[in-house]
Amino acid sequence: ASDRADCLAAGMTEHIGKPFDINPLVKLLLALTGKNGADTNRSAAPLPNAPVVFEGLDLNAALQRLSGSSRLYTRSAREFAIALTDAIDQFLAVVHRDIETAALQMHSLKGVAALLGATELAKAVGALEQQCRAQGPVLALEQQAQALRPRVSQTIDALHQAVRLLEAAEPLPATGSKPEPL
User: When comparing pLDDT for 23 and 55, which is higher?
Assistant: First the structure.
């Protein structure tokens, strides 16, 4: 709510917080640009045996936010899993010399984690972000970051499981056609 108020006070006409849902975002963009969006009411594609929740990852909620696009989820999850592998080390490397950059790193991680359904990781990273913004002692920030390592590993594993599930559920492309690169 405070982010929205700050944005509106700064002269923006609208605000959508993260994690955002694709359909409301598209509708807002269409309304603000005066465009016609004939196909903005798509619902999320159902998954077999719903709800699908891996340890620390709510796949169904994430797919709903992405308008059911398993391809978008799969591509984003792969990229995020790669980014997560050294996220803690990157944070530790920068927190000593630039706490604001460290906070921004955690803010970005929090947003992507929430978007992809890794809500527990998003909460933990958000807490670290807040400690950075409060200028907490660097030693305490380092310890808090180190404590995130098991959760990060768990999230990477869950993302890989989700990708495998979605790829297995994806229909095979017609003979002679190439699948879209992810």
Answer: 55
* DSSP of 73-101: HHHHHHHHHHHHHTHHHHHHHHHTT-HHH
Q: Which residue type does 47 have?
A: L
Q: What is the DSSP letter of 46?
A: P
Q: What is the pLDDT of residues 62-118, one digit of tens each?
A: 998 888 899 999 999 999 999 999 999 999 999 999 999 999 999 999 999 999 999
Nearest to 148 by CA among 80, 93, 99, 91: 91
Q: Rg of the chain over CA atoms, in angstroms? A: 19
- Which tokens sit at 175? 């003979």
Among residues 148, 85, 157, the alpha carbon closest in space to that of 122 is found at 148
Question: Token pair for residue 40?
Answer: 């903005």
Would you give the DSSP letter of residue 50?
S
